[in-house]
C-alpha cells in the first residue's frame, strides 16, 4: 500500500489485515528504512533506493509482492485540487513508474497464485474528470495511463483504475476500495461517487449537421508545437491555407539547405552514400549510425518541405527552435507573442517524443523525457494563455491513452494527463479546449508488411486527408461538447491491439 493519508490508509490497512492479508505500507522519504511495524519509508524517485526496499521487504525470504494499491494520488501534496506545479505532476508519474518497474516481476509471478493485483486510486471527480465541476486533483491523471499500459504488457495482471469523488467520507472510500478488491468486474476504469459506481463507455458522436467556419483568418495568431513534422504538420497546412500569422515550434534548428551530395537520393541511395563516406574516412561502419544519418536527412527534408508549404498556402510563418519542456523559455515566447500581437487566437500542442520499450526495460530518463515533452508544455500553456481571448486549444493526444499500449507507459501516461487537463480547462475557459486521441495515421511506420498485418486484424490507419477533415470538424464544432475525443479507424479491433500514433 503506497502513501500516507491516515483517514484512508489506517482503516484500509486494518481491514486488509483483518481479512488475513500481510500488508506493508510504503511512505515517501529520503532513505530506505523501517519507520514502524509494517511501515517502510523510501525515496520513490530513486530506483536504487526502491531496489533496497525490495530486498528489505523480502528479508531473506523468497516472498513476492502480490498486490500494490497506489494511494499516492490521494495523499498530500498530490491530492490538492486544480492545476498543480509541473514538478508534482512529474513526481507522481515517475514515482509510480519506478515502483511498477521494480515490483512488476513480483506481481507477474504472484498472478499464478491469484495475486498480481495493481490498483491505482485517483481523486478527479469520480468519473475520471469527465464531469469536473471543481475539486478534481488532476495531478494523478498520468498514473491512469501508466496502469493501462501495465495491463497491456502483462495480461495476467489484474489492473484497475479507481477514481474517487472528492470530499467523499473516508469511511465510504475505505468500504468502496475493499469492495473493489473482491469484485469480479474486470473493467479497468471504475468511477466511485458517494452512492454511485460508474464504468466508462465510449459513444459514437456523429459530426453535427451545422458547423461554424474555422475560427482562423488572416488576422489570427496561431501557435503550433511540433508543427513542422508528422501529423501536426498535416493539419497545420489546413490552417495555413487561411493565411494566419503562424508560429511553428520544433526541437531542432531549422535545417539548412541539403548537401548536394545527398540531394534527390532515396533511402537506398542515402544508405549507400553514407556507407561509402564511412569507408573512405576509415571509420567503423555501424548500421545504427548509418540509419540514423538516413533518417535525419529524410526528416530535414520533410521539415523544409512543410515550412515551405505553409508559406506557399499564404501563412506568414515563423519557425522557432525551442525546448517546450523549458517553462521559462516556452513561457517567455508566449509572453513575447502577447507583447507583439496583443493576442493568441489558437494553439495546437502536437509536440511529442517516443522511446518505446517495455516497462521493465524503460529508463527513468526516457520516461521523464516522453512524459515531460507533452505535460510540461501543456501546463505552461495552461498557465500562460489568456483564455478570454483564446478561441481554441487542441492537445494532440493518442489512442494509447484511452486503451494503454505495450511499450508506451510514458506516452500513455502523458497523453492521459492531457485528456484530464483538457476536461478541466474546457469546463472553465470560454474557448474550445479538446484532446484528440488519434489512432494511427496512414504514414510513417504503417507501410508495407506492417500495414498488411494490421489490415488483416481489421486495423486500418486513418488516411491523411480524412484525419485533416476530422481535425477541421472538431475545430469548427460550435458546441462545447466532450473534451476527450477519440478518432480512429477499426476502433473495436484497435482496442485489442493498440499501436502508437
Written account of the structure:
The protein has helices at 6-18, 47-58, 86-110, 141-153, 170-182, 230-240, 267-281, 287-312, 327-341, 364-384, 399-403, 409-426, 448-456, 464-476, 491-494, and strands at residues 25-28, 33-36, 39-42, 67-70, 117-122, 158-164, 189-193, 196-199, 221-225, 245-250, 316-321, 346-349, 392-398, 432-438, 484-487. Residues 497-501 have low confidence and may be disordered. It is an alpha/beta fold and 501 residues long.
Kindly identify the CATH topology of the largest domain: Rossmann fold
Rg over alpha carbons = 24 Å
The CATH superfamily of the largest domain is NAD(P)-binding Rossmann-like Domain
Secondary-structure class: alpha/beta
- Number of separate helices: 15
Give the domain tally. Answer: 3
Instruction: Kindly state the percentage of residues in helix.
Output: 40-55%
Biggest sheet character: 7 strands, parallel
- The number of E-state strands comes to 15
Mean pLDDT: 89
Distance between the termini: 34 Å
Q: What tags apply to this protein structure?
A:
Rossmann fold, globular, 15 strands, alpha/beta, 3 domains, five-stranded mixed β-sheet, seven-stranded parallel β-sheet, disordered C terminus, 15 helices, 501 residues
Put the structure in a nutshell.
The chain is α/β, with parallel strands linked by helices.
